[in-house]
């Protein structure tokens, strides 16, 4: 039996502000491993702990840059993340969410962000991201404050199968 499962809108748990992580013990490492597993199974490019019913400020992301040929997926763990810088320029693009299955929406996000966080062992890190990675970080970090992309989207709709293929930022196999 799975220990966790993805909870979906309108479950009120998704609206809670998640708690700051202060303990980086074995259980926390296990949680991160479980989050990667659930995200890959889904499949998705990002997952925030509240999406599996855990009130902790932690996000996992695994993303291969679609602009770079044969880019390998890169894994990120952001604990207690904060955006410390963002560009003024923004882009609107289609987003989906594992907690809002079957829908997509146009969301405006900053093109570049710098995120200050802790890694899985509590060490301070700073990551600069742009494009899709910056978008994923912003989307996942919103989950930690109980915000869903449907709150920000200009339109939300059920896409056709073709559109679903187009919005996945994953490289072609
Ligand atoms: Zn989401």
Summarize the structure.
With 173 residues, the protein is an alpha+beta fold. The chain has helices spanning 26-41, 131-144, 149-152, 161-167; strands at residues 46-48, 58-63, 74-86, 90-95, 104-110, 112-118, 124-130, 156-157.
How does this structure look, described?
With 173 residues, the chain is α+β, with helices and mostly antiparallel strands. It has one domain: Peptide Deformylase, CATH 3.90.45.10. The strands form two sheets. A five-stranded antiparallel β-sheet has the order 1-2-3-6-7, sandwiched between helices. A three-stranded antiparallel β-sheet has the order 4-5-8. The protein is globular and about 45 Å long. The mean pLDDT is 93. It is 24% helix and 29% strand. It starts with 25 loop residues before the first helix and ends in a 6-residue tail after the last helix. It is built from four helices and eight strands. It has helices spanning 26-41, 131-144, 149-152, 161-167, and strands at residues 46-48, 58-63, 74-86, 90-95, 104-110, 112-118, 124-130, 156-157. The site of zinc ion has 5 residues, from helix 2.
How far apart the termini lie comes to 31 Å
CATH architecture label name? Alpha-Beta Complex
Order of helices and strands: HEEEEEEEHHEH
Please write the CATH class name: Alpha Beta
CATH-wise, what's the superfamily? Answer: Peptide deformylase
Structural class: alpha+beta
Shape: globular
Spatial order of the strands forming the largest sheet = 1-2-3-6-7
Bound molecules: zinc ion
Mean pLDDT across residues = 93
Tally of separate helices? 4
The domain tally reads 1
Mind telling me the C-alpha Rg? 15 Å
């Amino acid at each position: 039996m799975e220990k966790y499962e993805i909870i979906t809108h309108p479950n009120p748990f998704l609206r809670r502000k998640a708690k700051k992580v202060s303990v980086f013990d074995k259980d926390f490492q296990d949680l991160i491993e479980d989050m990667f597993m659930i995200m890959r199974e889904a499949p998705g490019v990002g997952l925030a702990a509240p999406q599996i019913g855990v009130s902790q400020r932690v996000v996992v992301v695994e993303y291969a840059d679609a602009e770079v040929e044969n880019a390998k997926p890169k894994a990120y763990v952001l604990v207690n993340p904060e955006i410390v810088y963002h560009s003024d320029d923004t882009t609107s693009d289609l987003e989906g969410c594992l907690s809002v299955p079957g829908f997509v929406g146009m969301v405006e996000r900053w093109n570049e962000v710098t995120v200050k966080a802790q890694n899985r062992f509590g060490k301070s890190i700073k990551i600069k991201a742009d494009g899709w990675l910056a978008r994923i970080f912003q989307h996942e970090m919103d989950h930690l404050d109980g915000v869903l992309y449907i709150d920000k989207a200009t339109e939300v709709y059920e896409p056709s199968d073709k559109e679903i293929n187009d919005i996945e930022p994953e490289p072609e196999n």
